[in-house]
Amino acid sequence: MKKAQIMTQICIGFHKSTRIEFPILEYRPFRTFAADQSSKLFIQFYGGVDIPYDVELVENLDFKLRGLQNLWYIGFQTRF
Known about the structure:
Layout: E1 12-27, E2 31-33, E3 38-40, E4 42-59, E5 71-79
């Protein structure tokens, strides 16, 4: 029986990115006030894209970097 040989390559890289978010649906049902504080509820569905650029190797280990792709995402947040 032969042992499987696993080759792993470690590459340390750096990139910058621009994140653009778009609110899809927002809901603010109430807002209350007291003498010394206020309270509100905020619900939001959002989507966006993370656009990477300026890719560079930090540690060159004879490794060729692939081009990065845009990352699309959706999310949900609540605040009180």
